[in-house]
């Protein structure tokens, strides 16, 4: 997550990690993105080996 550059009160959900607005230093991974990255890494490794 990150704040909009022009409107700092509006946060975009646009990344691998989500943040808690009440505790910006807390992070948790967005599971669908994590799963897609792991699958992509696996497929790439299989293709390159």
Describe what this molecule looks like in 3D.
The structure is a single chain. A hairpin with a 2-residue loop joins strand 3 and strand 4. 37% of the residues lie in helices and 31% in strands. It contains 1 helix and 4 strands. The protein has 49 residues and is an alpha+beta fold. It has a two-stranded antiparallel sheet with strand order 1-2. A two-stranded antiparallel ribbon has the order 3-4. It has one domain.
What average pLDDT do the residues reach?
Answer: 87
Number of helices: 1
- Identify the overall geometry: elongated
The sequence of SSEs as H and E is: EEEEH
Radius of gyration: 15 Å
Give the oligomeric state: single chain
What would you say about this model in short?
The chain has one helix at residues 31-48; strands at residues 2-3, 11-12, 17-20, 23-29.
For this entry, give a set of tags.
alpha+beta, elongated, two-stranded antiparallel ribbon
SSE diagram, text form:
Layout: E1 2-3, E2 11-12, E3 17-20, E4 23-29, H1 31-48
């Amino acid at each position: 997550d990150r704040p909009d550059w022009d409107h700092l009160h509006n946060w975009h959900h646009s990344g691998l990690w989500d943040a808690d607005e009440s505790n910006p230093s807390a992070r948790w991974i967005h599971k669908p993105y994590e799963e897609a990255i792991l699958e992509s890494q696996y497929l790439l490794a299989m293709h390159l080996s």
